[in-house]
């Protein structure tokens, strides 16, 4: 019996040895705790980015001061997200700095992230590992903006297979760093063009000419170790772009192992073959004004179940007659229950003949976009008024390019392409919204910027105005039909 049990045990051990063993993860330490940037919110995103690949096991320390070689012994990779603010008391100390240097020289990996390039002024080894540093009178950037990154070493494992030029969205473009005299110590993988017009005459250092290319990604070696440096990734938004995530993850793997196995996302791949596709198929409208197959119908001639009133937030008090939506003056504006972001809005309207009125009292209404911006509806046929109140105007902001009004009593159409504002992770508007508008098939607004409203970047309803909020407002029985919306894919 004992012999049989021994055989079973040996068989079990043999079977266990035959099973594929899980690949050991890259043990990674992120060193942070001080930075001129928002390290508390960005650090978790860096950790999440690495761990999402399945290749890294990441820990974070917020106080590396006093650490020694025993602290770094369990790790394969260190990511530095730290800035000492040029304060001696925030330096790690000779013991800890030597521990990091020995760690790299022994063959381990180091990633230097963004504003860490400003750290440790005067620590020669750090500056040599960094290659370029933010130092007094060296290092500045224009306001955050979208820019294009260009590969300079497309065959390097970190960027191999990435498209030659790719966009980094709303980030700081570091320029005029202080570079080490011996440029053979590092290799620039990618650069970006610093457009000097963006400084608006307020650059901190001289900027000769119209612009210059500056390194964004580079690598170097120290002893047996590998170092990857990225100048990208200013804030929470910038570290979540495909460009940053892809290069940061792959650069980290390369620094730790000398190899890159992390696959490229489709949006970052260089296009080497033409893909045969039908694209996203949308069936066009069956007739003028009818909705295409992917439209959300807001009023199709039957009822007002999709609408509410601005007076008391009850059911919409306008009328439906003969498949048309009829305004009821002084009943309140109406708005959709559904809320929208960027999209294509279509509606048709018919203004009554009101010869006894003039200017803004004649056939006045408006369509309010999700941003609370009003696009003017008015009888514009032989009816002079102020420019930003004409039909096709972004009311109070932009006059229309042309007055494309038809006579009252004739059906007219709006096609409004609305791009909603873009906000930062803190809810601040970083890019204003815009509209492109066709009135009766003619372009009347061409990518016109719209002022930020209280709604910020929140989605909102479409609203049709009851223009009766003033004394002796005339009865204005406008009619609407064929109201629909198509979302714009980001």
Outline of this structure?
The protein is an alpha+beta fold and 490 residues long. 14% of the residues lie in helices and 28% in strands. The chain folds into two domains: 23-268, 3-Layer(aba) Sandwich (Rossmann fold); 296-487, Jelly Rolls (Sandwich).
What count of domains describes the coordinates?
2
The CATH architecture category of the largest domain equals 3-Layer(aba) Sandwich
The major pleated sheet works out as: 9 strands, mixed
Give the overall form: elongated
Report on the structure:
The chain is α+β, with helices and mostly antiparallel strands and 490 residues long. It folds into two domains: 23-268, 3-Layer(aba) Sandwich (Rossmann fold), CATH 3.40.50.880; 296-487, Exo-inulinase, domain 1 (Jelly Rolls, Sandwich), CATH 2.60.120. Helix content is 14%, strand content 28%. It is built from six helices and 26 strands. The chain has helices spanning 2-18, 39-51, 69-72, 94-105, 124-130, 242-257; strands at residues 26-31, 56-61, 77-80, 109-113, 132-133, 145-151, 165-171, 178-179, 186-195, 211-222, 225-230, 296-299, 307-309, 319-321, 324-326, 334-336, 343-350, 365-368, 374-377, 411-419, 422-423, 429-431, 434-439, 442-449, 463-464, 479-487. The protein has a nine-stranded mixed β-sheet with strand order 2-1-3-4-11-10-9-6-7, with helices on both faces. Strands 12, 14, 15, 17, 20, 23, 24 and 26 form an eight-stranded antiparallel β-sheet that branches. Strand 1, helix 2 and strand 2 form a beta-alpha-beta unit.
């Amino acid at each position: 019996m004992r012999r049989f049990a021994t055989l079973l045990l040996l068989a079990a051990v043999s079977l266990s040895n035959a099973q594929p063993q899980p690949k050991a993860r890259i043990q990674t330490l992120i060193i942070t705790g001080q930075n001129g940037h928002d390290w508390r919110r960005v650090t978790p995103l860096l950790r999440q980015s690495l761990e999402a690949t399945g290749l890294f096991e990441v820990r974070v320390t917020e106080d590396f001061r006093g650490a020694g070689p025993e602290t770094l012994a369990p790790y394969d990779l260190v990511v530095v997200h730290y800035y000492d603010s040029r304060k001696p008391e925030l330096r790690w100390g000779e013991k800890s700095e030597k521990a990091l240097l020995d760690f790299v020289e022994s063959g381990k990996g180091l990633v230097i992230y963004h504003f860490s390039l400003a750290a440790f002024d005067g620590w020669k080894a750090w500056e040599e590992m960094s290659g370029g540093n933010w130092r007094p009178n060296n290092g500045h950037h224009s306001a955050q903006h979208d820019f294009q990154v260009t590969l300079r070493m497309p065959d390097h494992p970190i960027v191999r297979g990435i498209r030659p030029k790719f966009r980094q969205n709303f980030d700081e473009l570091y320029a005029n760093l202080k570079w080490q005299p011996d440029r053979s110590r590092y290799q620039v993988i990618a650069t970006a063009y610093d457009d000097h017009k963006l400084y608006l005459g307020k650059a901190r250092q001289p900027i000769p000419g119209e612009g210059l290319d500056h390194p964004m990604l580079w690598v170097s070696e120290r002893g047996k170790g590998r170092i990857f440096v990225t100048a990208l990734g200013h804030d929470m938004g910038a570290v979540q772009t495909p460009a940053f995530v892809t290069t940061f993850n792959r650069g980290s793997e390369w620094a730790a192992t000398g190899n890159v196995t992390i696959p490229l996302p489709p949006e970052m791949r260089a296009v080497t073959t033409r893909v045969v596709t039908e694209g996203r198929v949308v069936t066009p409208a069956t007739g003028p004004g009818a909705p295409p197959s992917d439209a959300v119908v807001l009023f199709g001639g039957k009822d007002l179940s999709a609408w509410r009133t601005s007076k008391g937030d009850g059911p919409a008090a306008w009328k439906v007659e003969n498949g048309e939506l009829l305004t009821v003056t002084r009943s309140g504006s109406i708005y959709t229950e559904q809320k929208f972001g960027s999209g294509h809005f279509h509606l048709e309207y018919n203004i009554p003949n009101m010869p006894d009125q003039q200017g803004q009292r004649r056939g006045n209404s408006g369509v309010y976009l999700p941003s609370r911006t009003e696009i003017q509806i008015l009888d514009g046929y032989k009816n002079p008024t102020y420019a930003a109140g004409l039909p096709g105007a972004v009311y109070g902001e932009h006059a229309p390019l042309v007055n494309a009004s038809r006579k009252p009593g004739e059906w007219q159409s709006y096609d409004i392409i609305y791009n909603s504002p873009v906000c930062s992770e803190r809810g601040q508007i970083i890019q204003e919204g815009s509209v492109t508008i066709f009135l009766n098939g003619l372009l009347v607004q061409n990518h016109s910027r719209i002022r930020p409203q209280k709604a910020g970047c929140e989605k909102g309803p479409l609203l049709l105005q009851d223009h009766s909020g003033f004394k002796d407002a005339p009865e204005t029985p406008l009619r609407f039909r064929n109201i629909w919306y198509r979302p714009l894919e980001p």
